[in-house]
Design goal:
Chain lengths: ~130, ~130
DNA sequence: CTATTTGCAAACGCTTTGCCTGATT
DNA sequence: AATCAGGCAAAGCGTTTGCAAATAG
């Protein structure tokens, strides 16, 4: 594992700056539009490459959920899931939904919370043994 | 709003059956492969159309995470989010992470939990006023 | 210098859609 | 007959990648 050197190009620097100065959790395209005001000929590919790199560097975070494709669940009831970070399997958790947390957050914040989902991450039994 | 009638075709029926008999939270493609064993000339498009319809009917649930594109966050620290179901805005919640929940789930289940994320859904202040 | 990064455009991969034929009521 | 669903293939769309030229250190 060789450590790579990262240059702080003006593109990278400005992308990070734009992201640090907003709280709207923008899409790549929105960021692209903002950066274009300063660096008109930047390409979308560069934006994507830098967002990915900045996330790897721990400077920002990405709010997708890992895989690119959807998963389907024969159980239509809301319930919690556990995703193994090693093998990507998704399991149902047999623990009950927290009934009160929505109300609690509604009281503590200006948001009216109607539902929530919790995703746990870690190692499934099989992968705990493999490592 | 007119209510549509849904016929229970053999394709739809078998897709639902496959999904009900597994707990692996499969992808559309995996479902397609399973159904093909029974209905060899079914098309992927039909699988997608039915999965979407079954979800609308409340028979199954889809584990994608809403929008098709990623959102980026200038804050690399893990924290909770609130998504407005009306305007799709994403907000940071100023509440602290629950430090103990990972251990609690690790104790109660066979999974080794290393982290979790919680997404709350409901109405943001602006949209509460609009409705 | 030279390894990294960029712009451009083409490719990717999952999902959706249009169109027409076939099935159901 | 009228409506709903399916098969097929093309289109869609956000994202990734290959490549030659540019550039940071």
């Amino acid at each position: 594992m060789k450590k790579k050197k990262h240059r702080m190009t003006k593109q990278r620097k400005y992308i990070l700056e734009v992201l640090r100065q907003t709280t709207i959790h923008p899409t790549a395209d929105w960021i692209y539009e903002q950066v274009r005001k300063e660096i008109p000929n930047i390409s979308l590919g560069t934006v994507y490459r830098n967002l990915k790199l900045l996330a790897e560097m721990g400077e920002i975070s990405i709010l997708d959920y890992g895989s690119s494709y959807s998963r389907f669940d024969g159980n239509p009831e809301n319930h919690y899931h556990f995703t193994c970070t090693e093998c990507d399997s998704v399991f149902d958790l047999g623990i009950p939904m927290d009934e009160f947390i929505d109300k609690e957050i509604s009281n503590k914040t200006p948001f009216l919370v109607e539902s929530h989902r919790i995703e746990f991450y870690g190692l499934c039994p099989d992968c705990q043994n493999k490592i």
